[in-house]
Amino acid sequence: MTPIRVRIGLLGLALVAGLATPATAAAAPLAGTAPAPTVEERRLDGDVPREILRRSGFAATAPGFARGLGRADSYREARAVVARQGSALWRRAVDRVQGRGPTRGDLSRDDDRPLYWARLGMTRELRTWEPGFGLSGRQRAALLTELERTSRGQTDLRLPRDGHGDRDGHGKGMKRVLLTGFDPFTLDRDIRISNPSGAVALALDGTVIETAEGPARVETAVFPVRWGDFAQGAVERALRPYLPGVDLFTTVSQGRVGRFDVERTNGAWRGGFPDNDDVSRTETVPVADPSSQPQWTTTTLPYEAITAADTGRFPVYDNTSVTEIPAGGTEPVVRPDGPTPGSTAREGGGGNYLSNEIAYRATLLRDRLGLHGTLPGGHVHTPVLQFGAGNTDPATGAVTDPAFVRNRLDIVAQARAILTVAVSASGTDRS
Asked: pLDDT at residue 418 above 80?
């Protein structure tokens, strides 16, 4: 998710009070008036989203959610419906990818796209719902936030706080790992697109990986590709309760063709590439307490061990390049070996889109919590997930093909191997 680094035209993933800026209050719609669907939600009307939902067995998700809302006689009942069905969607998506439950449809189980399109169907139903009781704009916004968080696994992060055991209390000495992925993006370029970081998150959620430091429990969540959610503190709200108690974290997104990158440095700059709602932002990454905001943050992942290990078919690079405005300068300069003192960020190693921003926010949160020297964490870019030869034209191509599935499975397997190396090399025990 790095338009400047990825060259996306070639399609080549604090504290809440002390990191995220407060959301700007907007005028609340009058009770009883439902807003129109968003740009992102309107893409549901295309043939490809409908096919993905049908072929995965998720086509009935939004209609079932609408029926549940229709039975709610109060805001309190509606919130219960939203929380229950949002969480159920996340668990269903995880179970599907991990091979649990019945197989519905012929779309491969490793696919992350059913979760994305089913969630959008639910948010559209909720956004346009007009209940018989009074529902204020503020209440509707709260319901939408609840649906986003529950259906993204952000309320399902059940890592034990003391480091002794998995979510059920089993496995003394279990390491704790937190990983995040992203939704598909650049959908106006190719609406068929999948995001391998989202597939990684679904495949690893709740799993145990065996490392040289012992077993490690992995918990995951996914994030939207929308500037506004990040400015309103979505990353900090989700991660702050857990970073003090984990042994390692990594944010993951889709990067460049044919390679993994461990991003050494993250920059405090938004480069303006449109998000999934076609919104553009070119500005300093907005955080609270901007007077103490650094221009750069750095990874504490064991990048030397990761890049030296044989983790899969894709090469893995320690990416040290950034783009900066040097101290006293006015024009951006590419620095292959990282930023120079006093410079102003224009691109981190991972560019200046939301993958760079989630890495910046997560590592700044780590640092503001006083964990820089003790908590390994940073960002990993996966290869671009490519369709097979003969299936590259979005106007005529199929929604899946054998090479597409194989590429996604290989990326997921290598991401798991990279995580195993990272835990082994870190040798942390923060219980």
From this structure: yes
